[in-house]
Write a structure and sequence with these properties.
The chain is an all-alpha fold and 190 residues long. Helices cover 93% and strands 0% of the residues.
């Protein structure tokens, strides 16, 4: 596999990871988390496009330099000095190409690390979001229990008031009955 296809494959992988991040941003429950992930995704996309542009420019520069070198070689083919220059030029082009390849690979590694770091950040956000949702559910359950307790306390207070009223009426009836009996026994003429 040549270097161009390796770099293209890495760019395709990064493109897929960026799409995964966009999907994750759309799936977030909280808008602020979604916007944060979307901003991070956009930053990665811009960096990837910048790296692609730099890679293409360096590729074109290498091809132009090789073409120019080959043209010069064709024009000055008969001269010994041209052969030495050609060897020196090829060596410098190989070295330049090697340097560009190394810089592209380091850019690719940096992008890969950034994507990994973003994935870790998103994982942390998802975990904290889940924790917040669980806490919210617990709070809702506690609120329901508190409301139920309040209803029960109000019901018992009404029941207590009803019981007091019934006891008062029973005592009133009892005293009225006792007074009636006393009146009939002690004062039969009234």
């Amino acid at each position: 596999m040549d270097l161009n296809s390796q770099v293209k494959e890495k760019f395709n992988k990064l493109r897929l990871r960026i799409q995964d991040l966009e999907q994750m941003a759309r799936e977030q429950d909280r808008e602020s988390e979604g916007l944060a992930i979307q901003a991070e995704t956009e930053s990665h996309r811009r960096q990837m496009q910048s790296n692609q542009t730099a890679w293409r420019k360096s590729n074109l520069a290498c091809k132009l330099a090789i073409d120019n070198t080959e043209k010069d070689e064709l024009l000055h083919r008969g001269e010994n000095q041209s052969i030495r220059q050609r060897k020196a030029t090829k060596e410098s082009l190989v070295e330049t190409s090697s340097n560009i390849t190394e810089s592209l690979m380091s850019v690719s590694r940096m992008m890969s690390e950034q994507v990994k770091q973003t994935e870790d950040t998103i994982g942390t956000l998802v975990t904290s979001s889940r924790t917040v949702q669980e806490t919210n559910e617990e709070f809702k359950n506690m609120t329901g229990t508190i409301h139920l307790g309040r209803k029960l306390i109000l019901k018992y207070n009404r029941r207590e008031l009803t019981d007091k009223l019934l006891i008062f009426l029973a005592f009133a009836l009892f005293f009225a009955t006792v007074l009636y009996i006393l009146k009939k026994r002690l004062f039969p003429f009234i």
